[in-house]
Amino acid sequence: MPGTSSERVFPSLDGFVGGKSEIRNPKSEIIDLPSFLFMVQLVNNAVLMDYSFSNPLVPPDEVRSWLDGLPRPIAITGGTGFVGSHLVDTLCAAGIEPRVLVRDPDAPRWIADAPVRWVVGSLDDQQALKRLVKGAGTVVHLAGVLRAGRESDFDTGNRVGTANVVAAMREVAESARLVQVSSLAAAGPSPARDGIGPEVEPAPISWYGRSKLAAEGEARTWNGGGGWVILRPPAIYGPRDSDVFEFFRMANRGLVALPGGERWLTVAWVGDVIRSILAATAADAGSLFHLGEPNPLLLDDLIAKLCRAGGVRARVVRVPPGLVSGAGAIGSALQRLGWRRLALTSDKSRELLARHWTARTADSLESLGTRTSKTFLEGAETTWDWYRNQGWLK
Hints:
Blueprint: E1 22-24, E2 30-32, H1 33-49, H2 64-68, E3 74-77, H3 82-93, E4 99-102, E5 117-120, H4 126-133, E6 138-141, H5 151-172, E7 177-181, H6 207-219, E8 228-232, E9 235-237, H7 245-253, E10 255-259, E11 264-265, E12 267-269, H8 270-280, E13 287-290, E14 297-298, H9 299-310, E15 315-319, H10 321-336, H11 346-353, E16 356-357, H12 362-368, H13 376-389
Parallel strand pairs: 3-4, 3-6, 4-5, 6-7, 7-8, 8-13, 9-12, 10-15, 11-16
Antiparallel strand pairs: 1-2, 11-14
Helix pairs in contact: 3-8, 4-5, 5-6, 7-9, 9-13, 10-11
C-alpha cells in the first residue's frame, strides 16, 4: 500500500525525559514508549489514508512522462467528484495548478485545500465555461449526471453539458485537447462475457447510457487543434467512491443482494482511470478507448474477493428481476420528489439486470501505454482501509 507506516521514520525520542524510554503528557502522567509509538503509528496511518494533493493516490512520479508533456493550462469539469478529485490531487502534487469548475466554492468536497484556480459556475453557464477553458491546452470533461428521475435530466446534464463545453472551447480554446470521460454504459452491455471493444456499434439500454453516447457525439464535433479523445470506463471503485461502495456496505453487513443469473463484469481501479486520463492527453486524436481490468470477473467471484479483501463473511441473496425493477421504480418516484443519492432507480435497475457489463480493454490499454496497477483484490483492500479510516464502514 502506498505510504505505509513502515516507510516513515519517526525521530529518536532518547533524551525527552532524561534519556529514558518514557514521555510525559501535559498532565505529567508517564506514558511508556511502546504505547506512545503505537499511537503515533495510528495517527500516521490515518493521515496516510486520507488522500490529498500532499498524499495523492497516484503519485506524480508514476505518471511523470505524461505530466511533463501535458498541454497547459489544464481545465477540469467534475474536479470535485470521485475521479476528478484524485486527478486534481495528482496534478497539484506535481506543481500544476488546474482550473476547476465548481458550483459552490464553499463546498469543494475532497479538494478544499488544493492549490487550484476555482471557476465558479456550472455546465449551463456559458460565461463560466469560457473563463474555465480560455487559452487551455487540455480540457478534461468529467462532470455529468449519474442519476435522475427523467430522461430529459440526463440529456441536459450529459449531452447538453458537453455541447456547452465544446461551444466554449470553440470561442476561446481553439488549440486544446479535449478528453471526454464517458462510460461503458454508452456502449451498452455485452452479449458475451469476453466483452465488447470500442469498434462495436453502441447499443445503450438506459437513459444514462443513451445520454453519454449522445455526449460522445457532441465531443466528436470538436475540431480544434488538439483534437478529442474519448474514454469509456466501466464501474470504477476506490477511495471516495459512493456507488460501488454499496456493495462494500452490503458485504460489511453480512448480506449481499444480487439479481439472479450468471453475470460478468469489467471493473476499474480509480488510480488506473487517472493514469488513462493523463495518457489520453498524449494519445492519437480521434481515438476511443475502453478502460478497466483486461480479465472480466464473474459477479459472484467479485463479491467473494471483496469479502476476502475486507476480512468479512457475507451471504448472497438472489433477488427476482421483478423486485429489482419495482424497487427501481420507487427510487425514481422518490427522486422526482426531491430525494438525492438514491442507490437504485428505474434507470439503474435496467443496467443492473443486464447480463454482462464487460469490455475488451487490453488493446486500448496497450495503445494508451497504460496497464492495471492493482488487481481487484488489492484495490479492494485499499478501499476497505479507506472506508474504515473515514468512518464510512466499521
